[in-house]
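INFO batch 0412 | record 1 of 1 | parsing
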Amino acid sequence: MAELRYLSVPAAHPVFRGHFPGNPIVPGVMLLEWVQRELAQVLGRAPSALRIRESKFFTPLAPEQRAQLSFEPGAGRCSFEIGADDTRIARGVLEWDP
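INFO prediction complete | emitting C-alpha cells
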C-alpha cells in the first residue's frame, strides 16, 4: 500500500523572498528534501542515507497550495510522485544501501 503525506508551505515562508519575487513558487530542492525526510522516517534512516536517483518536475507548486506525496518503499529503492489539485508536480526515484 502506498504511503501518503501532505505539505503546504505558508506564503510568509522566507524561501519565497528570493524564489521568485512577484511570482513565488516552492523550490524544487525544498520538495526533494521533504520527500527524503518523509521516506527516511518510514524507513527509520537518516535523510542523508537516501540518494535521489532521478527527479523530474512538471508544474510549479505555489505558496499555500496543498501538495500530496505518494510513495511505496521497496528493497533499496522507492519511486515517488508529488501532486496538487489533480496536477502532477514531480516524480522521481530514491535509493539507499541495504
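INFO post-check: The CA atoms of residues 9 and 64 lie 5 Å apart.
INFO record closed
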